[in-house]
Amino acid sequence: MSHEFPPLEGHISKAFDGALASLHVKVIEMGGLVLDQVREATHAYTEWDEEAALQVIERERDVNSYKKTIDSEQLLLIARRAPVASDLRAILAMSKCVADLERAGDEARKIAKNVIGTGARPGVATSRDARHLGELATSLLRLSLEALDTIDTARCSEVIARDEDLDQEYAAGLRRLLTRAMEDPRHFEVAVEAAFVLKSLERIGDHARNLARHVLTIEPDGG
Amino acid sequence: MNQQSDQTLHERRRPDAPAAVVAANAPSGANDPDSAPQRRDNESGLNLKPSGRTHIQSSSSLEERSAQVSGQTVGHIAVENPIFMCRDVNVFYGNKHALKKVSVDVGRKQVLAMIGPSGCGKSTFLRCLNRMNDTIPGARVTGSITLDGVDIHDKRQDVVQIRARVGMVFQKPNPFPKSIYENVAYGPRIHGLARGRADLDDIVCSSLQRAGLWDEVKDRLRAPGTGLSGGQQQRLCIARTIAIKPEVILMDEPCSALDPIATARIEDLIDELRADYAIVIVTHSMQQAARVSQRTAYFHMGDLIEVGETDKVFTNPRHRLTEDYITGRFG
């Protein structure tokens, strides 16, 4: 008689359970760090906080370090356990999530780098748009991490739907930015940099959406 | 935006986070098999909830594709132009009901792997296909097993001929106490398959070549078969089986007594042989079943639970029992 086991748990080998759980925890930890990075990078840009920006750039090393550790753990897990079925899908999904988290971390660093050196500080309206988009991206990333934490397919669907809203907000923000740039060409450089920042935030939303899609592959029949 | 909750998500994940998270990251591995992290509640971290999967997964494609005849097996029990067609096969050892209404086809020129925990009935079912259960006192087989459309239990059937058409390789290599040559020549000789010595030589040579053993033994065909290594003996047994030109080869854990190198060679051989034979293999190794077979059947306590394409069974099995077994969640 079989029992219903939660994803990643229930193996006869407790060592296998432990290894999967350890991997899962590390991926969530990495996600939490990236979430923090995105929030701090957005704050650094909108408030023109050079210290916060430097911290984001510095901490990017930790994000990369997580990726290396997780990649190495996954390799060992596959070599030792030859996982199949749901275990295999979960490990592959987590591997893809790590890649997307690492890229989201890169985008946060790019945003922060605008604040350092000769970066051009955004105006009130541009800051407002960047702050709004940053909040949307952070919210989406947090939701996708919660979905990954509990392997929650309903939340995944919500993330995928809400990314479309973020894309629309990005498009609207970009239009407003271009309008301001055309009205006042003296601030063209600021507008160009701001456009890159908005694009980075939109990409972070895409990475959050990808996370959700990867989680859905763990339980393809809806769990 | 709720910064507090964002900080909570990251704060509790840092290396200096609460003990529950640190414990999960402590090296557990093989040194501490009981160190699986405890499940935690929402406040502190992971909250792995039951996946909510039903006993049999439901999907529209399952209803479309399922071909349940016995009413209990998930997946495709039938194939086109099967060599064997088994329907509602029951086996009793005295009062013990060892195999329960098993229905499945065996396809030509493909490998069907049978997996399941010890005592599930897979070897019992294998022995049904060449009526080896007839040799077990108290064994009784019911249901229909047809070989090329003819019932193998029909009174007019010659069981010796059935066993010539359906060869078998056993777990422990069992060469005859004869020379390598005679091991392979014996079957064709007694079945009258060779017109003379030259024919017999050809059969022995081609069978040993087919089994991948010729180069290793061609200079010592008179040497005793029992003097070969375990892997060579098993290949000799395979050569002996194919020498009488069967249509089906049954293999009961053929590699379990062999080292990894010999196992790899046998698996390669199985892949080559399926070009000409239907092969049914019982194996305890999930990885072997995944490597060598095109279809996989999962048995559990006498029931055939699931049968389907091997790739699908090992990436996304349909039945909860199959998933649990192949992922090592119960034995």
Briefly characterize the structure:
The complex is a heterodimer of chains A (223) and B (331). Chain A is mainly alpha-helical. Chain A has helices at residues 14-47, 50-81, 85-113, 124-150, 153-183, 188-216.
Which class best fits the helix and strand makeup of chain A? Answer: mainly alpha
Q: If you average the pLDDT of chain B, what whole number results?
A: 83
Number of helices of chain A: 6
What class, by secondary structure content of chain B? Answer: alpha/beta
Low-confidence parts of chain B: 1-70
* Order of strands across the main sheet of chain B: 1-11-10-4-9-8-7
Estimate the strand proportion of chain B: 15-25%
**Rg of chain A, nearest Å:** 20 Å
Mean pLDDT of chain A: 92
Task: Bin the strand percentage of chain A.
Answer: under 5%
Oligomeric form of this entry? heterodimer
Q: How many helical elements of chain B? A: 13
Distance between the termini of chain B: 48 Å
Cα gyration radius of chain B (Å) = 25 Å
**Major sheet of chain B, described briefly?**
7 strands, mixed
Draw up the topology in text.
The complex is a heterodimer of chains A (223) and B (331).
Chain A: H1 14-47, H2 50-81, H3 85-113, H4 124-150, H5 153-183, H6 188-216
Helix pairs in contact in A: 1-2, 1-3, 1-4, 2-3, 3-6, 4-5, 4-6, 5-6
Chain B: H1 3-11, H2 19-25, H3 60-65, E1 74-75, E2 84-93, E3 96-106, E4 111-115, H4 122-128, E5 139-147, E6 150-151, H5 159-165, E7 166-169, H6 180-190, H7 197-210, H8 214-217, H9 230-243, E8 248-252, H10 260-273, E9 278-282, H11 286-292, E10 295-300, E11 303-309, H12 310-315, H13 320-326
Parallel strand pairs in B: 1-11, 4-9, 4-10, 7-8, 8-9
Antiparallel strand pairs in B: 2-3, 2-5, 5-6, 10-11
Helix pairs in contact in B: 6-7, 6-9, 7-9, 9-10
